[in-house]
Amino acid sequence: MRSASHSRFGDPAKVLELVDSELPTPAAGQIRVKMVMASIHNHDLLTVSGDYGFKPELPAPAGTEAVGTVDALGEGVTHLQVGQRVAASGRGSWADYYIAPGASAVPVPDEISDEAAAQLVSMPLSALTLLAFAGVERGGWIVQNAANGAVGKALAKFAVPRGINVLGLVRRHAAVEELAALGIGNIVSTSDEGWRDHVTAITQGAPIAAAVDGVGGPAAGQLLSLLGQKGVLISFGLMSGRPLELSASDLIFKEAEVKGFWLAKIAPRLGAEKLASLISEIVQAVAAGDVRLTVSEVFPLSEINRAAAAAAEPGRKGKVLLKA
């Protein structure tokens, strides 16, 4: 079978290669999935480049999330059936077949397309968990940058039934219209003159309790400057590749708090019942069309290098996917 792999860390568009691998055998509690479509997430690219919080032993298979059909069941997996369509996370999902934990595989209803199912769990779950992590009460305000990213769009939508107000920052005016087409408002382009006044007009001067930074660099400092007294700045991404640039004055005089967020560490602490509840909310919201998981481009697995390059391009309107 074909599998995207890398034997060294570096630019994913250059170091990834399609290799012939043996068909994997699921161990107890695992399933083998025949991949239909797979997502290329930012954390996947960072793992290949060697810049993520987890460094795999080389050579390493690439990819972490996909949708496909159950091809084989490991011992003890009784709640799934061979041929069943599932969204499943597992190392090496950019392949014809991959292994995933049976307990975390999510059966996909017919109402959800393969394009949406391929990105059903990781980013929406990050968004839901971030909302809880921020600790903002009903009626309060959250500001986030990268508001047109997968997490940003999902967070804005999941905040609505919770009565939490979300203000999003983007770096180009066209993104404001793109988000409006998805039913997401309260978006400000930092490329516009007087954008801070626009922020104040939207919030009507109400204090902003939490900020979610997915960019780093000076963009993190912008968010910190918008926080109210004793606000919290949450760092969950580093799209710019630059260290956080924060004002000491904002930190000191606002008594602000800076916290790091990594779903890989937080999800295991949620407990099985809570995790299942969040996944159920995601499936229902996507199936109903309340949360739309958009796609930029779809590449065949054979064009993994072109796909990786496209996924790294700024200004995308959705995920780049791989198709078996």
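Second entry:
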Amino acid sequence: MFKNAKAFTGYSVNDLQKAKDFYGNILQLDVSEIAEMPTLRLHLAGGGDVLIYEKPNHQPATFTVLNFPVEDLEGTVAKLKELGVPFEDYDFPGLKTDADHIARGPVGPHIAWFTDPAGNILSVLKEM
């Protein structure tokens, strides 16, 4: 039924202008605005899109909404920190971030989680 549908995902923020600045200027993604409604479209490598819309009663996602595979995880984390991006710390059984905010567990990729200005959780992870 949806085999050829060009599916996309979306999530809310509480301030569209802050989101536009963060995704466009800090993360350096290709961002366009949809004039008919207060919505941003993130154009991702590989052809995927993400819609970001402003919602007055926005609640940040409690799970990772977007993952960015990178070759140099440590360098990317350091650069994002220089730009003022806040990283998450986790200390759960089987999942612990180190002093660099990177989880280097025995299972899964090395990964670091950070938040956008609206508190939504994103990640950078070592390309596999």
